[in-house]
Amino acid sequence: MIATVLVEHRWLTTTALVLLVVLGPAVGYWLTDRPRLAGAAALLSLVPVAALTLVPTSRDLAVGCAVEWATPSLGAVEPMANLVLFVPPALFLGVALRRPIAVLVGASAVSASIELAQAFLTGLGRSCSTNDWLSNTLGAALGAGLAVAALWLRSYVNRRRESSDRAMLGSRV
């Protein structure tokens, strides 16, 4: 069902990507002082990941995994959807833990685990593909990058505030 909607409205994944890139650093910045909320947002953003990758379908597939390597492009619906799917969890968890690189590595491992599950749990009716892992990992890299931007922005604002506070204290003396 979701694939049909995305095919009929190809602009949705591109719009979601643009919104994530534009709003991600600001939302991440706001969440830097709220790590519990960032963690809760990360958990909530994993619900679509689980639903879209592990909920069984009515298809019956053989064991195996398609080995193919292509980077996502704006017109390619499924690779872009796989990319967009992993941006929010990586962003939110990167901000919550303040460890975006570790989150990127973990997200890539989670994606690989999902693909392995899809390959061997044929009852799921899900297709395993190295392209899905690549797109998910690229999305996690983007999310981690947005988390880095948010954390840098928080650090920059804090440094400016401290500098301003010191200047004000110095002028009072």
UniProtKB/TrEMBL annotation:
Give the organism the record lists: Nocardioides renjunii
Q: Please report the stretch or stretches of sequence annotated as the VanZ-like domain.
A: 39-148
Out of the domains of life, which is the source? Bacteria
Q: Which InterPro entries match?
A: VanZ-like
Residues that span the membrane, as ranges: 12-31, 38-56, 76-94, 101-121, 133-153
What keywords were assigned to this record?
Membrane, Transmembrane, Transmembrane helix
Q: What is this protein called?
A: VanZ family protein
For whether the record's keyword set contains Transmembrane, the answer is yes
Is Transcription regulation included in the keywords of this UniProt record? Answer: no
